[in-house]
Specification:
CATH architecture of the largest domain: Alpha-beta prism
CATH topology of the largest domain: UDP-n-acetylglucosamine1-carboxyvinyl-transferase, Chain
Largest sheet: 4 strands, mixed
CATH class of the largest domain: Alpha Beta
Number of helices: 13
Function: Catalyzes the transfer of the enolpyruvyl moiety of phosphoenolpyruvate (PEP) to the 5-hydroxyl of shikimate-3-phosphate (S3P) to produce enolpyruvyl shikimate-3-phosphate and inorganic phosphate.
Domain Enolpyruvate transferase: 10-424
EC number: 2.5.1.19
Strand content: 25-35%
Number of domains: 2
Strand order of the largest sheet: 2-15-17-16
Bound molecules: shikimate-3-phosphate
GO molecular function, one term: 3-phosphoshikimate 1-carboxyvinyltransferase activity
Distance between the termini: 23 Å
CATH superfamily of the largest domain: Enolpyruvate transferase domain
Family: Belongs to the EPSP synthase family.
Length: 431
C-alpha cells in the first residue's frame, strides 16, 4: 500500500485545467458500444481503473476493444456476437460495472460468475439482483444472494414496471438494460430523477426510449448501432478543484470542458447556495451532453442545509462539500443522503472520521452529517480507506493545514482520476 506526504500547505490555486472524462459516461460508452453492431469510437475516455474493468469484462466476452490512452475503438457483432466467458469476471472496485453489467448479462443465454475487490464485495447487489430475478434471470450469490461473488444465468427475460426502492442511477440503468433484451416494454418510475446518461446514450446508439418526467420506458428486443462518443470532463472530478479554489486565499481556477448534464450539476447549485463565487461560461453541446467551463475564485463560504432532491445530483460530491462546510460561517446540515453508506466506503463514517482527525467538528447522522464551520484544520496521518473520493478530499484538505498531512493508500485515486496529483501540482505550481 503506497503513502504520500502532502506538501500543499497554504498553497493557492490558479490557472486552468481540463479534468479526465466522465466516469459514468465512459462506462456506458464501452458497454453500449459492445452491445452495438459496428464500430464505436470513444474519445476523452476515462482510463481510470473502474472503466478499465468494464473494458476487460467485454473483452472476456469476445468484443474487440482497443485503447490508446484516452481513445477507445470498439468493433462488435452486436448482442448476438457476445460469447460466454471462460473465466469469472473481475469487477475490481466498480459498482457501476457491477450493477449495469448484471442487467446486460441477465439478458444473455449464458452463465457468468462475477467478483470484485474487498469493498465491492460488501456493497449491496440485491437492489439490482431482485428486479432482475423478477424479470426471469437466475442470480445467486453470497449472503443469501445479496453480495458478490455472484453467478448469473440469463436469457428469456420478461419486461417489468419497476419502482426502485433506492435512488440509484445504477439500478435504473441495470433494469433498463435488461429491458433491452425482454419482450414488450420495461418501465422504471423513479421518485427522484437520477443521472440520465443511460437514457441519453441509448438514444445516440439508435434505441427507442421514452422519458416522461421521472418515468423511463424502453422498448424490448432492440438493436443498437455503433456510433462515436466524445466524453465530457467529469464534474465529480472537477468538484475537488472547484472547492479547493473556493477555500484557499488568492485562488482562481477554471475547469474547462466539464459535463453540465442537469442531473449532475447539483455541485454548482450547492456552491452558489454556499456563497461561492462561481461562473459557468462557454456553454455548448457535445454528443448530446451539455458542457462548459466553470470558474471559481476564493470566497467566504456560507453554511447551508443540503437536503432533498439535490442529493442524487451531488451524491459523489458530498465528501468534498463536507470539507467546504468546515470553512463555512456556521453549521451545515446534510440530510437525506443515506445512500452514502453504500459507496466505496460508508462515506458518512469515513468523511466524519477523516475530517475529525484533521481537526474538524463533524457529527454523523443516520442519513447525513452536521458540520461546524470556521474550523482550523491541522496535519494528521490519514488514510483513504481505499476510497478514491476520500483520498482526494484529504489532498484538498491539506491545502488548509499548517502541518503536513500524510495520506496512506493514495493509489486508489486512480479509480476515477489517475492524473489528480499532476493537476493539483499544476494548479498550485508545485513540481
Ligand atoms: C453512477 C451512479 C451513482 C454514483 C456512481 C456512478 C452511475 O451511484 O454514485 O459513482 O454511473 O450510474 P448510484 O446510482 O448507485 O447512486
Amino acid at each position: 500500500m503506497s503513502s504520500k506526504v502532502l506538501k500543499y500547505q497554504h498553497a493557492s490555486l490558479s490557472g486552468q485545467i481540463t479534468v479526465p472524462g466522465d466516469k459514468s459516461i465512459s462506462h456506458r460508452a464501452v458497454m453500449f458500444g459492445s452491445l452495438a453492431k459496428g464500430k464505436t469510437n470513444i474519445t476523452n475516455f476515462l482510463a481510470g481503473e473502474d472503466c478499465l474493468s468494464t473494458i476487460s469484462a467485454f473483452q472476456s466476452m469476445g468484443v474487440s476493444i482497443k485503447r490508446d490512452e484516452n481513445t477507445v475503438w470498439i468493433e462488435s457483432d452486436g448482442i448476438e456476437g457476445l460469447k460466454e466467458p471462460t473465466e469469472p469476471i473481475d469487477l475490481g472496485n466498480s459498482g457501476t460495472t457491477a450493477r449495469l453489467l448484471m442487467g446486460i448479462l441477465s439478458g444473455l443465454p449464458y452463465h457468468f460468475t462475477l467478483f470484485g475487490d474487498e469493498s465491492l464485495s460488501k456493497r449491496p447487489m440485491d437492489r439490482i439482483a431482485n428486479p432482475l430475478r423478477e424479470m426471469g434471470a437466475k442470480i445467486d450469490g453470497r449472503n443469501n444472494g445479496r453480495l458478490l461473488p455472484m453467478s448469473i444465468r440469463g436469457g428469456n427475460l420478461s419486461s417489468i414496471d419497476f419502482k426502485p426502492p433506492v435512488k440509484s442511477a445504477q439500478v435504473k440503468s441495470g433494469v433498463l438494460l435488461a429491458g433491452l433484451f425482454s419482450e414488450g416494454f420495461t418501465t422504471v418510475e423513479e421518485e427522484t430523477k437520477t443521472r440520465d446518461h443511460t437514457e441519453n446514450m441509448l438514444k445516440a446508439f439508435g434505441a427507442e426510449i421514452d422519458v416522461e418526467g421521472t418515468t423511463v420506458k424502453i422498448h424490448g428486443k432492440q438493436k443498437l448501432h455503433g456510433c462515436d462518443i466524445e466524453v465530457p470532463g467529469d464534474i465529480s472530478s472537477a468538484a475537488f478543484f472547484l472547492v479547493a479554489a473556493a477555500i484557499t486565499k488568492g485562488s482562481s481556477v477554471t475547469v474547462e470542458n466539464v459535463g453540465l448534464n442537469p442531473t449532475r450539476t447539483g455541485i454548482i447549485d450547492v456552491l452558489e447556495l454556499m456563497g461561492i463565487s462561481i461562473e459557468v461560461v462557454e456553454k455548448r453541446t457535445i454528443g448530446g451532453e451539455p458542457i462548459g467551463d466553470i470558474k471559481v475564485a476564493s470566497s467566504t463560504p456560507k453554511a447551508a442545509v443540503i437536503e432533498g432532491d439535490v442529493i442524487p445530483r451531488i451524491i459523489d460530491e458530498i465528501p468534498i462539500i463536507a470539507l467546504l462546510a468546515t470553512q463555512a460561517d456556521g453549521q451545515t446540515i446534510i440530510r437525506d443522503a443515506e445512500e452514502l453508506r453504500f459507496k466505496e466506503t460508508d462515506r458518512i463514517d469515513s468523511v466524519v472520521s477523516t475530517l475529525t482527525k484533521l481537526g474538524a467538528s463533524v457529527k454523523g447522522t443516520k442519513d447525513g452529517m452536521i458540520i461546524e464551520g470556521n474550523t482550523l484544520l491541522h496535519g494528521a496521518v490519514t488514510e483513504s480507506f481505499g476510497d478514491h473520493r476520500i483520498g482526494m478530499m484529504i489532498a484538498i484538505a491539506s491545502l488548509l493545514t499548517d502541518e503536513q498531512v500524510e495520506l496512506h493508500d493514495d493509489e486508489c485515486i486512480a479509480v476515477s482520476y489517475p492524473t489528480f496529483f499532476e493537476d493539483l501540482d499544476k494548479l498550485t505550481s508545485i513540481n
